[in-house]
Amino acid sequence: MVSSHWPLFDLRLSTPRLRLRVPTLEDLDALADVAVDGVHDPDVQPFAMPWTDAPPIERARGTLQYHWSQWAAWKPSAWVLNLVVEFDGTIVGTQGMTGKDFAVLREVSTGSWLGRRYQGQGIGTEMRAAVLHLAFAGLGAEHAVSAAFADNAASFAVSRKLGYEDNGIDRYVVRGRPVVCRRLRLDCARWQARRTVPVTVDGLAPCLPLFGLDDADAS
């Protein structure tokens, strides 16, 4: 146990190939190295906040600072759970899940990135499946939402595989140009019907109050 006062450090999600956890400082350093190595083709920008356009040293430091800032900002009514993804003993990316007024709304949103060298191996699907299991089976969520720019075929492939449905669009300005962002939504029934990845969650019970829940809420 890293801290008896912050049980999230003992939360673990496991799939057949992956381990997801709240990062240690060593994990964050490894994640920053992955960010420096590259997350996507430099000719495209898949993020509404274009953090990957920064020079490598700023990208690395920004990765650390972002995770630290979300730890400090955590509230049961507004939380962002960022997990590092370990594949074959190596940190390969990060999978996030956000809840606002979750105890009432029972809705989460997800976001992630994966080092470019690890893409195309089904890891993105498996890591999203892990947090969806945490949301629906562990926390009692009713809906999960996601979004991606219209040209992000890989992200949509993951979402379709897991059962998401279209949920409208937003528009952003990225690199000085308008882009269309497609929203997607997944309800608990469709998640149940489409789930194929076995997931194990350990260490959740002590964390429930940090999500604004108790044992009865999550069941």
UniProtKB/TrEMBL annotation:
SUPFAM superfamilies: Acyl-CoA N-acyltransferases (Nat). Gene3D superfamilies: 3.40.630.30. Residues 18-187 form the N-acetyltransferase domain. Pfam families: Acetyltransf_3. It comes from the Bacteria. This is GNAT family protein.
